[in-house]
Amino acid sequence: MGKSPAVELEVEDRVVRISNPDRVYFPARGETKLDLANYYLSVGDGIVRALRERPCMLHRFPEGVTGEKVHQKRLPNGAPPWVRTVRVHFPRYNRHADELRVTHLADVIWAVQMSTVEFHPWNSRAADTEKPDEWRIDLDPGPTCTFDRVRRVAGVVREVLAELGAVGFPKTSGSKGLHVYVRIKPDFGFQDVRKAALAFAHEVERRAPDDVETTWWRKDRDPALVFVDYNQNTRDRTIASAYSVRGHPEATVSTPIRWDEIPDVDPRDFTIATVPKRFAELGDLHAGIDDAAWSIEPLLEWAARDELEVPDEH
After folding, report:
1. Neighbours of 78 (CB within 10 A)
2. Which residues form the DNA ligase D polymerase domain (predicted)?
3. Domain enclosing residue 192, as ranges
4. What pTM was computed for the model?
5. Is residue 284 a part of any domain in this protein?
6. Which residue, of 48, 156, 201, 249, has the greatest Cβ tally within 10 A?
7. pLDDT digits (tens, 9 = 90+) for 138-180
8. 188: phi > 0 → left, psi -120 to 50 → alpha, else beta; which?
């Protein structure tokens, strides 16, 4: 069977050519590369808001999600002149990379043309890549942890955030966990943000010791508990953005949700087949995140009080 002819998609004032549009990317229901592009068009405001001006690593699947995955930091070759980049430095290796810098929905659709399924942005922006403006709370369930336990921990997270005066924006991970994002003032570097995240994780563990742990080494963790992963705030550590599709055969999506949905939410319900209708009805539930910037200083005070130091990431 020959390749399907390319199609051209009009994305606002730009045109993006999608080659092999009928290639099946998600075998569970048969969604194609073109289905993936149309999904991202349907949530355009949301995915651009989640990625805007951030260095972005791409998870590419040239043969679909059951094939090889390519972790792409540097912008793929062949980008049109309107695709922008941001240069980031990797001190451990003393190297640089020019990563995708989304400013327009067409940038996202071009990345799909280059076989990108997942978008993994930094928690800092191009204006100063060394100063994060997003604190990420990752509720990572162990292999035998139930989702009911994740739900309970999310309730504790919400409680502590409210006491701090911080606004959390929850989303499904697109897999088995939950994420909560907090917009923060870009006043501190990665090490301080990670330390603040550790202080928060310790407080959640203190309040829910039967559900939570913060043990550094994976091999030492209880597989039935939720790890509050403060390490997702480490420099160059990324997780799938809001509205990012995940590289699973079922085409699940990391989807913003309301706090009051958490008791009944099932992350498996959010896919490229269902999220477009939800987005059309509810809009972007993270639309107000940029208006809710918060200072991490109280958490740094907790870290100093408890004499916390973040472990060496290596």
Report:
1. 9
2. 32-286
3. 132-236+292-306
4. 0.96
5. no
6. 201
7. 999 999 999 999 999 999 999 999 999 999 999 999 999 999 9
8. beta
Question: Sign (positive/negative) of CA torsion 109, 113, 117, 121?
Answer: negative
Low-confidence ranges of the chain (pLDDT < 50): 1
Residues whose CB falls within 8 Å of the CB of residue 211, separated by 6 or more in sequence, listed in order: 149, 152, 153, 156, 225, 226
Pair of tokens at residue 138: 């990752």
The answer to whether 54 and 125 are in contact (CB under 8 A) is yes
Q: Check which CATH number belongs to the domain holding 99 and give it.
A: 3.90.920.10
Q: For 141, what's the count of Cα atoms within 13 Å in the CB-facing half-sphere?
A: 20
What is the DSSP-derived secondary structure letter of residue 132?
-
Q: Are both 208 and 300 inside the same structural domain?
A: yes
Pairing of β 226-228 and β 212-213: parallel
Task: Report the distance separating Cα 202 and Cα 230, nearest Å.
Answer: 10
- Choose the final residue of a domain: 100, 121, 142: 121
Instruction: Decide if 88 contacts 236 (C-beta within 8 A).
Output: yes
Contacts of 297 (CB under 8 A, 6+ apart): none
Between CA 128 and CA 86 the distance in angstroms is: 10
Task: Check residue 1 and give its pLDDT.
Answer: 46
- Exposed (0-12), middle (13-18) or buried (19+): which is 200, by Cβ within 10 Å? buried
What is the spatial distance between Cα 307 and Cα 43, in angstroms, rounded to a whole number? 43
Pair (147, 111) in one structural domain: no
Task: Give the separation between CA 23 and CA 65, rounded to whole angstroms.
Answer: 11
> Domain total for the chain?
2
